[in-house]
């Protein structure tokens, strides 16, 4: 991800524009007329192509195309039939996602506020019945505006005239009392954005969404005929007038599925994506006139311009279907996204789209895409112990792979750590192996702990040799996958993070780096001289393992009978061990303060302080325990791997700070 230091911080949108312009200049210099961002390519998955053919036959469609990916990766691209769907086409209501993303980006920069009244930005709405309407109400279809207005969508109006027209036509119901699907409410929000910025809608969308993503074929046009005058019409319909292509819209969905970032360029913050794709309709407070899509089966709720359907326990499907056969969706639990483009739309197509979407879920979880996970048992220290090993697809053709140990927290297990951190999916994309060892306890598969030192849990009280177990696991994994011994890393949460600190001292010959999340460096019984990369991630409001050290304010059982070392103590130890001196480079990412010490020939040290963060894996799933805290949005798993990815184990210590 592209970031910049505090000492030379520029506005985020300015930095992003400069990066995009630089990419365009480089492309122009290399080949006249060449696009700045090459089209993404992927083979067609047979199972998805079969599902697409089934949809075409059942709905009697002459042609269709389907792109499916996961967390920013395009994995399958299928085109069948007449091929017309590969062209730039009107996308109808699928325009809303593009509009909402543009408006949220303006909110991130403080230009707009979701909960501020439109009248703050456009005086035309400063009337008795409209002056309190907020941007959030507009984007959730609860503002009270009528569903349609020919006058408001007239293509020749400017933003002030359009806003005045909408305000003069009045409301169909009191704001925040009823929900009704329509386009006028989004048009009102766009008017506020245009007036607040002094820039037309075309430039707002292009500068904030289209150009950063390389979407060269997506523009907003008139409501009728759909897409007319795309890119130039004075009053584009933001709710239904855009045109796009499968290539372009796939990039947009890939960005959303990847938490607002694509190919190293951040377009939206994770929190904006979460807000956009979260439920906002509340039947207890709002009368829902019609939360349904003609032809689609099931019960739906609404987010910001987003239809939301619960497809299974804990699994939400977010979509933005257009009436002209253009349907994008994201299944949030798996990070899978898809874009279906059909030559025409029909009720039969919408009734059967679920089979294609379900086929995409099965495809994403297949070994060809998701790799494989196996449970392996090893004998060590007089015990039969186990670990979970995840290998990425295509491991057989790899010469060697990095290996990441992920140590669960106290009371957890390896299976829980795999779900909470999501490292297996990152490993599939980045092609490394992950091992999730199980600790020990009174039960074989739950309430497990690590002998990390300084914490009275089962593993310490029974003097379990967990450092020796780590060596045994590595030897076992090396028999099953081509592991690069110079690229072995360890990360963990809480008691697992404490174990990482111990491994950094007792297993310096094994590990090139550690990443400790919410865990103190309580073991100091031995030392090591070989430099080791160290990443420390800790919330400053963690009550279980205090940022400043000391006795926990909250704990479970006897684990609270301890005094933890501070984050500063661990930081200073690794700075000295890696011979770093001087001030760090300081960056900010959301509410995270990132301090980094780097220099040529030395292992890096990084400390990430999560402002307001508690005792949970940032960016991870909450887990099933009633004791689990809500994770912060900072994407710890991705950032941990980005820290480790370029590193290799050093062969000898360096001396003296520079």
Concise account of the structure shown:
This protein is of the alpha+beta class and 658 residues long.
Can you walk me through this structure?
By secondary structure, this protein is α+β, with helices and mostly antiparallel strands. Helix content is about 30%, strand content about 20%. The protein is built from 18 helices and 24 strands. It has a 10-stranded mixed sheet with strand order 15-16-18-17-19-20-21-24-23-22, sandwiched between helices. The protein has a 7-stranded antiparallel sheet with strand order 2-1-14-13-12-11-10, sandwiched between helices. Strand 11 and strand 12 (about 315-320) form a beta hairpin. Helix 3 packs parallel to helix 6 (about 185-195), helix 3 packs across helix 7 (about 200-215) and helix 5 (about 160-170) crosses helix 6 (about 185-195). The radius of gyration is 27 Å and the shape is globular. The two termini are about 30 Å apart. Residues about 1-35 and about 655-658 have low confidence and may be disordered.
Helix and strand arrangement:
Layout: H1 12-30, H2 46-59, E1 63-70, E2 73-81, E3 89-90, H3 95-108, H4 135-139, H5 159-169, E4 178-179, H6 184-197, H7 201-213, E5 219-220, E6 242-244, H8 246-257, E7 261-262, E8 265-266, H9 270-276, E9 287-288, E10 301-302, E11 307-312, E12 315-319, E13 326-331, E14 336-342, H10 347-364, H11 367-370, E15 372-380, E16 383-391, E17 401-407, H12 414-421, H13 423-430, E18 433-437, H14 458-461, H15 466-478, E19 483-493, H16 495-506, E20 513-517, E21 533-539, H17 567-577, E22 585-589, E23 592-597, E24 605-610, H18 636-644
Parallel strand pairs: 4-9, 17-18, 17-19, 19-20, 20-21, 21-24
Antiparallel strand pairs: 1-2, 1-14, 3-6, 5-6, 7-8, 10-11, 11-12, 12-13, 13-14, 15-16, 16-18, 22-23, 23-24
């Amino acid at each position: 991800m592209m970031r910049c230091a505090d000492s030379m911080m520029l506005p985020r949108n300015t930095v992003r524009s400069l990066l995009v312009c630089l990419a365009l200049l480089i492309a122009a210099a290399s080949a006249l007329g060449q696009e700045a961002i090459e089209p993404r390519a992927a083979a067609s998955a047979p199972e998805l192509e079969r599902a697409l053919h089934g949809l075409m036959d059942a709905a009697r469609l002459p042609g269709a195309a389907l792109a499916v990916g996961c967390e920013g990766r395009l994995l399958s691209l299928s085109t069948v039939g007449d091929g017309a769907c590969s062209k730039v086409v009107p996308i109808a209501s699928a325009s809303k996602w593009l509009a909402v993303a543009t408006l949220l980006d303006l909110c991130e920069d403080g230009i707009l506020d979701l909960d501020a009244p439109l009248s703050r930005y456009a005086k035309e709405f400063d009337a008795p019945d409209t002056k309190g309407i907020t941007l959030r109400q507009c984007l959730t279809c609860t503002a009270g505006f009528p569903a349609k207005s020919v006058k408001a969508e007239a293509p020749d109006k400017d933003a002030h005239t359009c806003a005045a027209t909408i305000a003069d036509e009045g409301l169909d119901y009191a704001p925040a009392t009823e929900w009704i699907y329509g386009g006028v409410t989004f048009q009102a929000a766009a008017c506020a954005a245009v007036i607040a910025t002094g820039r037309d809608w075309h430039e707002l969308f292009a500068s904030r969404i289209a150009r950063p993503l390389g979407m060269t074929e997506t523009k907003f046009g008139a409501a009728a005929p759909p897409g007319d005058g795309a890119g130039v019409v004075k009053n584009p319909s933001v709710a239904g007038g855009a045109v796009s292509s499968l290539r372009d819209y796939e990039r947009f969905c890939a960005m959303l599925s990847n938490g607002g970032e694509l190919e190293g360029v951040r377009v939206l913050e994770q929190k904006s994506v979460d807000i956009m794709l979260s439920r906002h309709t509340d039947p207890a407070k709002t009368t829902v006139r019609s939360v349904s899509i003609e032809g689609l089966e099931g019960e739906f709720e609404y987010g910001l311009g987003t239809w939301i359907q619960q497809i299974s326990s804990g699994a939400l499907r977010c979509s933005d279907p257009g009436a002209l056969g253009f349907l994008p969706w994201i299944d949030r639990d798996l990070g899978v996204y898809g874009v279906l483009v059909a030559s025409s739309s029909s009720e039969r197509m919408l009734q059967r789209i679920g089979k294609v979407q379900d086929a995409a879920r099965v495809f994403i979880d297949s070994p060809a895409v998701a790799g494989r996970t196996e449970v392996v048992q090893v004998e060590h220290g007089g015990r039969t112990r186990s670990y979970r090993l995840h290998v990425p697809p295509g491991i057989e053709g790899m010469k060697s792979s990095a290996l990441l140990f992920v140590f669960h927290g106290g009371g957890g297990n390896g299976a829980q750590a795999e779900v909470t951190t999501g490292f297996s999916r990152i490993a599939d994309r980045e092609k490394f192996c992950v091992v999730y060892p199980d600790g020990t306890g009174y039960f074989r598969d739950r309430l497990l702990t690590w002998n990390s030192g300084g914490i009275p849990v089962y593993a310490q009280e029974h003097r379990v040799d967990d450092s020796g177990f780590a060596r045994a696991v590595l030897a076992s994994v090396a028999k099953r996958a081509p592991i690069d011994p110079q690229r072995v890393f360890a990360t963990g949460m809480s008691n697992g993070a404490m174990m990482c600190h111990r491994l950094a001292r007792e297993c310096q010959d094994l590990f090139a780096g550690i990443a400790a999340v919410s865990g103190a460096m309580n073991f100091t019984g031995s030392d090591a001289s070989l430099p080791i990369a160290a990443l420390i991630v800790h919330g400053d409001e963690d009550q279980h393992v205090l940022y400043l050290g000391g006795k926990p304010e909250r704990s479970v059982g006897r684990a609270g009978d301890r005094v933890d070392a501070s984050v500063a103590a661990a930081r200073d130890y690794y700075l000295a061990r890696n011979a770093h001196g001087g001030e760090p480079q300081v960056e900010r990412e959301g509410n995270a303060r990132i301090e980094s010490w780097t220099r040529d020939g030395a292992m890096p040290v990084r400390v990430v302080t999560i402002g307001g963060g508690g005792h949970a894996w940032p960016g991870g799933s909450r887990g099933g325990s009633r004791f689990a805290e809500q994770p912060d949005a900072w994407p710890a798993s991705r950032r941990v791997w980005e820290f480790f990815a370029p590193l290799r184990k050093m062969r000898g210590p360096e001396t003296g700070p520079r």
